[in-house]
Amino acid sequence: MKFPFSFLLFFLFSLVFFGSCKEKIILPKHNILLIITDDQGWGDLSYHGNEVIETPHLDSLAAQSVIFERFYVSPVCAPTRASLLTGRYHLATGTTWVTHRMEVMREEEITIAEMLQPAGYRTRLFGKWHQGKQFPHDPLGQGFEEFLGFTEGHLNNYFDSKLTHNFEEVSFEGYLPDFLTDKTMDFMEGEAPFFAMLSFNTPHSPFQVPDRYFDMYKAKGLNDKDAAVYGMVENIDDNVGRLISFLRQSGKLDNTIVIFMTDNGPNGVRFNGGMKGAKGHLDEGGVRVPFFIRIPGQPHQVIKPWAAHIDVLPTLMDLLGIPVSQDLEAHGKSLLPLIKGNPQWEDRYFFTHHVNRDFDTIPGAIRNQKYLLTLKNNKKELYDLENDYFQIQNVIAENPQLVEMMEEEYLAWFQNVTKNGVTPPLIQVGHAQIPRIELPAPDGKMMGGVSFKGKMGWANDWFVGFTSESDQVYWDLEAVQNCEYEVYAQMSNSSPLEIVLDLNGEEWGTTILGANVAEQIPSPDRVPRGEVYEKNWPLIYLGKGRFEKGKVKLTLRAKGKENVELEIKSVILNELNFKLPHSIK
Description:
The protein is of the alpha+beta class. Helix 2 crosses helix 8, helix 6 (about 175-190) runs parallel beside helix 8 (about 225-250) and helix 7 (about 210-220) packs across helix 8 (about 225-250). The two termini are about 40 Å apart. Mean pLDDT is about 95; it is low at about 5-25 and about 580-585.
């Protein structure tokens, strides 16, 4: 359960009345700017020895920051974000993977934003969320007062596309990272204190970047993909420079904690400091990323002991003097003792889990300052990281007792963090003041011959393959109260047909008289993409549906015709008389 507002206030007031620990750097009411990028590896910075890429603004920020030399995250993006936001291992939050609702974080989890709101902070998220699309699993349900970005794992176009602003779909102009930076600066211009989380979409695919960045790296002899990736990172660097310049010119830099980090290893094989592995891997190259934290009044230093995403929430709260209740069951710990040079810091284990579509105990890994044990499909590998940074020599044969002990620690950890199960929560409908609910195809399930256009069902995918009346798609919902919506489908059909919608056995048909064809939007990709392409989807009205309180199964199928040429992108539930989407400038 969420902690009541009064519960958090009690701890805040107790801090004021009873004082604070002298060992802490307490920064009351300091602003926080948290910048996280998508699929940028440890080696995608000139600061880390990459001689091709140019990141002067990030290098400058690093030189002013506390740097954790070995900072770990999860192998892919949604799990990293769940741990970052909560201070807990992602499996304990319900987030296990990146699609099919396995990315959804339980609403009971307490986020950084929810901790800061009772302390008087304005909270905003700009960019990628990837923890659930519908309220209360969206940013507004998890402590952010305003959200401008996208809830899925990625967008399909980074130029002149569409975003979500709170509960509405809006359009934007220009290149998305630049637009998000502009909006973040607009927000930071307001009253303090603020918590601004800027979650860049780049350099995640599709590989789209303005010409001037792409041409710069093509001129250096890079292939199209690497030129696009490095160009995207240099654009991030320019935007970080703009943010720091804004904070300095506005007089807020000396009152703002600035964090820069990335969410997993690089999305491809390129310079990564010689580390083994990339995105999706348990090895060092898959989970070790840049982490810089600029703390007002704290000098630059490089810290050797490892740290991780689970430590960010406890560290921020420690910096701000906000107690973290034991009821949160945070798995991370405050890094302030390390920053203050406490020689009593004890080594600990960091656990990693990864899903290859189907959830299982492994692949997994356990590491501390010296050793890394990876468990992959009955294959175990042990590396001495202090003496074998590149993971060349598997020393498992020489250390059988250590391997047995570390594996037992991993299995005990796994059992603990999955004690509440990993079944994704149902999509909730019926919340007051939520005018529009989208049920995208990857959040649904299929029956018969239906499949995803993009096979895997990544973000923005859609259903295809309706060849008979037995082919169906459905969404499992929970109505929190009796409610009524206008029901629409984003769909494409090449000939007339009847769509049957079923709500817990109550069904009705809607005759679609003509063809409604989704048209592909031109995409300025630098290399062929692995995702589906974006389309303009016709929005077809299917009637009004009443949802009775409790569990609801919403099913769609085509009737009366074999081999129907039908594609379904999503179902949209609109509160009666809800206004149409608009543009945002």
